[in-house]
Design a protein that fits this description.
It comes from Takifugu bimaculatus. May associate with CD21. May regulate the release of Ca(2+) from intracellular stores. This is Annexin. One of its GO terms (cellular component) is mitochondrion. It holds the Pfam family Annexin. The chain is mainly alpha-helical. Among the domains are: about 70 residues, Annexin (Annexin V, domain 1); about 80 residues, Orthogonal Bundle (Annexin V, domain 1); about 70 residues, Annexin (Annexin V, domain 1); about 200 residues, Orthogonal Bundle (Annexin V, domain 1). About 70% of the residues lie in helices and about 0% in strands. The protein is built from 38 helices and no strands. Helix 4 runs antiparallel to helix 5 and helix 6 packs across helix 8.
Length: about 625
């Protein structure tokens, strides 16, 4: 195994001298915390064990107990945990997760899904040595169902590590997983447990690829469809670790720090356990997925000696780096390949109502607005539970039956954001998009993010319909409006997109190679030439084709297209190209991020929130919800 940690053995190591340094740092009133953290984070774990022994030999005291006495809070937890041998650290984490009130399933999942056979055996032994009980028996007593069964399978540490792959068995396992889930009513969980809990990593990667060819679904999507609760989360963690352990930990670290508050136990556990194994790869995966260095996220989210210790374990800031480590380059290439193979299931939240009666709905809406006060709940219930096509029938029937304009009545009876939301739902999609484009450009200032979001994510047909609706409503073309409100290359990019002439169809492999080479070559050109070349490809090629282009770009440049855009471009041009790349990779995920940004921090960007919720409700809002939960749902450590 090749170790790519940030903590390595210190040269010219003298455990007795280190023991004396630590003793002096804790002697007298107060303690020299900086000396303690600098020494401990510059020694590997094996050397720290020697320092513990030398400390007791020289001073007759227990170093860990002295550290506990002198230090406090999260800093104390971090330093003391660094002093434990890896197996004993894992054993304590698992013990803390299953003892006391409640169970920390998240910790159980993270640790047991990610350890190899040797680490698992050493942890089980350390648990017995420390707590005098059998780890398997304690897990059985504290968990239940299929979740318990999979944990017990993982605890055996018996995964095939031979590296030998039987092609026939790969195909059979893929077919068995399909038969156990997507192909039948109900799920054969035992089959999932047997295959995912025992087959080798190399074998399972091939099984996942074969499964995707058979079903046009990723194994992750099938698990989300077929399983639930802690068992679903455990199986997803196993799959993520099979694909890439560093990427799995990058996700866990991001979730531990985003949003309000920090899941410090998770942060400490991962930074310690991976610091000597694969922290360099985790850093690169973190940068690849979240466009921010792990170093800077820790720096922004923590403070004091705790922060300094974590940053020492992290080992460096990758935000200025351009190229990948080998592991991360392979992951980036594979991610684009998976994006191309996966047929994303787009699921709406609003569907046509059964037994629809437009006349009854029109009468009910009139009743809700007649007299003193307005029955807003009744209006919401009707409008939000009808498809857009049904709402158009209601508009027409309202006028035919009552001789009144429903839109005018709604505007007079409702106010503020509720009015904007209900009116948005009553417009046709093309009318709504045209109105959103108009709002983004009217008055002082321009909402460039709205312009980008709409033009990047709409199909050719949707853009053509929006153009027609804009012309009808505002007596000028949308292209003319864009040209009068924006300028420079950003204006040219928007004009290109508003033509609604993006190529359609699958990737042309030979042309994708050529496009990728042109983009890679453009990275060495003058800034303006580079941007024009990116525009000529990103604004015209089909999304399936661009997926292949971005994948091959990694191969030709050893860089990720997102990182290049972030590093080499700025302002609205950068934001537009970035939105295209994100939409090509996973459009529901792009919208999930837009929703998160609309609601995070002080205040809410109500216009963005309404725009996305209305426009995606009959297309993929349920899928967006799932992406939002996966990326932005914070759980305690």
């Amino acid at each position: 195994m090749v170790f790519r940690g940030t903590i390595t053995a210190a040269p010219d190591f003298d455990p007795s001298a280190d023991a004396e340094t630590l003793y002096n740092a804790m002697k007298g009133i107060g303690s020299d915390k900086e000396a303690i953290l600098d020494l401990i984070t510059s020694r590997n774990n094996a050397q720290r064990q020697e320092v513990i022994t030398a400390y007791k030999n020289s001073f007759g005291k227990d170093l860990i107990e002295d550290l506990k006495y002198e230090l406090t809070g999260k800093f104390e937890r971090l330093i003391v945990s660094l002093m434990r041998a890896p197996a004993y650290h894992d054993a304590k984490e698992i013990h803390d997760a299953i003892k006391g009130v409640g169970t920390n399933e998240k910790c159980l999942i993270e640790v047991l899904a990610s350890r190899n056979n040797q680490q698992m055996h050493e942890m089980v032994t350390a648990y017995k040595d420390t707590y005098g009980s059998d780890l398997e028996e304690d897990v059985i007593a504290d968990t239940s169902g299929h979740f318990k069964k999979m944990l017990i399978v993982l605890l055996q540490g018996s995964r095939d590590e031979s590296g030998v792959v039987d092609a026939n068995l790969v195909e059979q396992d893929a077919l068995d997983l399909f038969a156990a889930g997507e192909e039948q009513w109900g799920t054969d969980e035992a089959k999932f447990i047997m295959i995912l809990g025992n087959r080798s990593v190399t074998h399972l990667r091939m099984v996942f690829d074969e499964y995707q060819k058979i079903t046009e679904l990723s194994i992750e999507d099938s698990i989300k469809n077929e399983l639930s609760g802690d068992f679903e989360r455990l199986m997803l963690a196993v799959v993520q670790c099979v694909r890439s352990v560093p990427m799995f930990f990058a996700r866990c670290l991001y979730k531990s720090m985003k949003g309000l508050g920090t899941a410090d136990n998770t942060l400490i556990r991962i930074m310690i356990s991976r610091s000597e194994i694969d922290m360099l790869d985790i850093r690169e995966c973190f940068r690849l997925r979240y466009e921010k260095s792990l170093y800077n996220m820790i720096k922004d989210d923590t403070s004091g000696d705790y922060k300094r210790t974590l940053l020492n374990l992290c080992g460096g800031d990758d935000d200025l780096a351009g190229e990948f480590f080998p592991e991360a380059a392979q992951i980036a290439y594979k991610m684009w390949e998976l994006s191309a193979m996966t047929k994303v299931q787009l699921r709406p939240t609003v569907r046509p109502a059964a037994n629809f009666d437009p006349a009854a709905d029109a009468q009910a809406l009139r009743k809700a607005m007649k007299g003193f006060g307005t029955d807003e709940d009744a209006i919401i219930d009707i409008v939000a539970q009808r498809s857009n096509a049904q709402r158009q029938e209601i508009r027409q029937t309202f006028k035919s039956l009552l001789g009144r304009d429903l839109m005018k009545d709604l505007k007079s009876e409702l106010s503020k954001n509720l009015e904007r939301l209900i009116i948005g739902l009553m417009l046709t999609p093309a009318e709504f998009d045209a109105k959103m484009m108009k709002k983004a450009m009217e008055g002082a200032g321009t909402d460039e993010h709205a312009l980008i979001e709409i033009l990047v994510t709409r199909s050719n047909d949707e853009i053509q319909a929006m153009n027609a609706a804009y012309q009808a409503a505002y007596k000028k073309t949308l292209e003319e409006a864009i040209q009068s409100d924006t300028s420079g290359l950003f204006c040219r990019i928007l004009v290109s997109l508003v033509q609604g002439a993006r190529e359609e169809g699958p990737a042309d492999l030979e042309r994708a190679d050529a496009d990728a080479q042109e983009l890679a070559a453009a990275c060495n050109a003058e800034s303006d030439d580079m941007k024009v070349k990116f525009m000529s490809i990103l604004c015209t090629r089909s999304f399936p084709h661009l997926r292949k282009v971005f994948q091959e770009f990694v191969r030709f440049s050893n860089k990720d297209i997102e990182q290049i855009i972030k590093k080499e471009m700025s302002g609205d041009v950068k934001n537009t190209f970035y939105a295209i790349v994100r939409s090509v990779k996973n459009q529901p995920s792009y919208f999930a991020d837009r929703l998160y940004k609309a609601m995070k921090g002080l205040g809410t960007d109500d216009r963005a929130l309404i725009r996305i919720m209305v426009s995606r409700s009959e297309i993929d809002l349920f899928t967006i919800r799932k992406e939002f939960k996966e990326t932005h749902d914070c759980l305690p450590s």
